[in-house]
Amino acid sequence: MSRHIVLFMMVILFLSGCYDKKEVEEQAYVVALGLDQGKEGKLKVTYQIANPEVGSAAKGGQANEDPYEIVTFETNDFVSARDTSNAFITRKVTYEHLDVIITHEDLAKTEQFLRLMYVTTKDKSIRRNTKLIFTKEPAAEFLKQNKPILETRPHKYFQFMTQRTNETGLVPEANIQRFLTIAEGDADLFLGMYASTVQEEENKRANEDEFLAGQINKEGGNPTQFIGSAVFKEGKMIGKLTGEQTRLALILDETLNMSDIITTYPDPLMDEYRIAVRLMKSKSNKYKMNLQGKTPTVEIKIPITIDVLDVPSLKDYANVEKNKKLLRESIETALEDNLMEFIKMTQHEFKGDPFNLSLEGRKEFLTISQYEKFDWMNSYPNLIITVDCMITIGEFGKQIKTPNLNVLKD
């Protein structure tokens, strides 16, 4: 008899595992969380809540429903905000599918932002790989004005947008884990994704990647632009980088995988034209450091492979060896000049490096105490850094032979 009682009790224990389960239609999935400064020290929180029925086979006759709902309210923190929101949201709010945290740059420039990021580590439902996006306008306004056309489901839009801009190097890879790791390391600068829905009235004329979000002159489509990065020092935003500067940081950074970058350089034979090339890093950077003397030095060798995609001047760089050598040397010089100018800017303006150079530098010290005594953050502005780009020219596209315009005119 006792054996049956024990068996009965074990069955009851297993059956109790679903007592707190929630059906999909009973939960409100926040896919984007907006953070702004509220009044009197409060936090203004914006939820973009996905409608799981829109865009799915199970939507049935709900074709007229919106794909998401956006609500904004003030609270003390975004953890307790979930219960507060149930005063006007019928379903249980959850962060389990939270993909991005969008923060207004005014809030990112305060100490409150670092505290908020540490709050995320306490909440079990917020993943460490949640992406961090920083905006020129308030996050609430950004979410309201962001109207993707091709992607009706908001989580797919942010997934595709951040993935593609990461691949092209227009914005850096940025998430909670990386932010906290760099902030606690107190040696390097963190780069966050920069975006905006506000287009500047007088857009500057520049090359393809020399912009910040909102500066690209465009018409039609979704007003949102992802380009550039927000720079953080010790957990607080201190400045911004353009898309070009962000790409230069990625070339120097060995902790991130750089995909192929398509950009242009002046044509060495006809400088009124620009040659389109694809930059690829085939191997890791090589470092030579001397950090023990009075004048610490760092030499960086960067192997780059380029494919020539477009030559508007129609000069023959593929078959004329002299022209090919001239093109390679011209791009090497231009890239080295850009990198050196960027490094000097980070030394003088930011007083820190946004490409994790300290990870290579700490290898030069025998003990942790020696590395800490060197004080990388304060020593970086005084480092003498040189860059050597070793470029290899790969392909010249499908058609190698260059047409002769004079023959065509005849």
TrEMBL record:
Ranges of residues in domain Spore germination protein N-terminal: 20-192
Predominant location: membrane
Gene Ontology biological process terms in this record: spore germination
Keyword Membrane belongs to the record: yes
Keywords: Germination, Lipoprotein, Membrane, Palmitate, Signal
Boundaries of every Spore germination GerAC-like C-terminal domain copy: 228-397
Superkingdom to which the source organism belongs: Bacteria
Compartments (UniProt record): Membrane
Cellular component, GO annotation: membrane
Membrane topology: Lipid-anchor
Record carries keyword Lipoprotein: yes
PANTHER family in UniProt: SPORE GERMINATION PROTEIN B3
Family: Belongs to the GerABKC lipoprotein family.
Name of the protein in its database record: Uncharacterized protein
